[in-house]
Amino acid sequence: MVKIFVTVGTGKFETLVKEIDNIAPKLKDKITIQIGSGKYIPKNCEWFRFAPKLQKFYKENDLLIGHGGPGTVFEILDTKKRFIACANMNRTDKMHQVEFLRAISKETKSLIYCSKLNEMFKTIQIAKKTKFEKYKKPKSWIDKTVGEFINEN
Question: What's the predicted TM-score (pTM) here?
Answer without folding.
Answer: 0.89
